[in-house]
Amino acid sequence: MTGRKHFILAIDGGGVRGLVPLRVLESLETRMRARGKSGPLHRYFDLMAGTSTGGLIVAGLSAPKPDDMSGAPAATVEELRGFFEVEAREVFHRRRLLERLVTNPLTLFDQRYDERPLEGLLKARFGWTSIASALTHVVLTAYDMEAREAVFMTNGRQSDGSRPDDFYFWQAVRATTAAPVYFEPAKVENLTRGTDQVLVDGGVFLNNPVLAAYVEGRKLGWRPEDMVILSLGTGARRHRGYSYEEAAGWGALGWLSPANDTPLLSVLSHGQATTAAYQADWLLPEAGVGEVIRLDGELPRAAEAIDNTRPGNIIELNGVADRIIRDNTELLDRLAGEISERSDWTAGGLSQHG
């Protein structure tokens, strides 16, 4: 017997390349509106999971708008697009060499970007709302530097059925986007324990959160056959490798140098994301999951950097998204139709979700 379908969204990390999956969501939303479904996306996805920039998107779509009782999300798809196309330039604004020398005389080992502009934008967008108040089920990933363990910030259930630890949304996003080399670790307040945690970007261990999304769905008691998982990538350079001559001469600084597009982080995040996609492609159908949809695209070389906010690169990223949408028109139409067959959920109606 087929039960009620549970639609799940999972979005990879990738810095400014988050514009790519956001554009795919924009296209899906447009198709749903054409079918009379004009509500925000949290009303149609039972669960949203995100790492790094994917976590930022998920939080924007699922957090309640501060001081607003209407059930509106903290950000619309259009507003998030504005963040990637415009506001991200402020976030990825390189500090002058003199400023970095004052901050750290060993400036080669200093973080590339000042976290304060990002924190200011997050506070303004999310206020002091917490994950427990999310409008749908969410999972944001991070890594605890002190406990040396993965952290899944969620409003679902723990394995023992208890409620998970709660965090402010803005701090959770700051944590999941705290990419080593680029930003300082995030010091976040665990609202449940009353203690602080030092967290970094979830991309260090789980750049593609599709399996975490599946596990969270199972913890909520959903049957695999009732799950439809939409997994969105942020683009990849599949045909651009590194030669022996390049890699052999890097040394420690070369592997971590932002000027060299931080090859260590690039290799680790891309390797993990593709491995998770491969595992999900094999394991989830074996587990009986109703459907797993993976959409990703090929990046031009110049668009691979997670911090390239130049107007020309934004055009390139929009082009990547346009090709994904064009090549998957029928699939997106079908998915929009399946989602639109269901009634809108009431805002904040998590009991209806799980």
From TrEMBL:
Biological process (GO), any one:
lipid catabolic process
Which PROSITE patterns does UniProt cross-reference here? PNPLA
Q: Where is the motif (GXGXXG)?
A: 13-18
- Which parts of the sequence form the motif DGA/G? 201-203
- Please indicate the residue ranges that the annotation assigns to the motif GXSXG: 50-54
Which residues constitute the catalytic centre? 52 (nucleophile), 201 (proton acceptor)
- Identification of the protein by name: Patatin-like phospholipase family protein
> Where is each PNPLA domain found?
9-214
Describe the family membership recorded for this protein in Swiss-Prot or TrEMBL: Belongs to the patatin family.
Determine the domain of life of the protein's source.
Bacteria
Question: Known Gene3D superfamilies for this protein?
Answer: Cytosolic phospholipase A2 catalytic domain (3.40.1090.10)
State a single Gene Ontology molecular function: monoacylglycerol lipase activity
User: Which Pfam family name is an example for this entry?
Assistant: Patatin
Keyword set for this entry? Hydrolase, Lipid degradation, Lipid metabolism
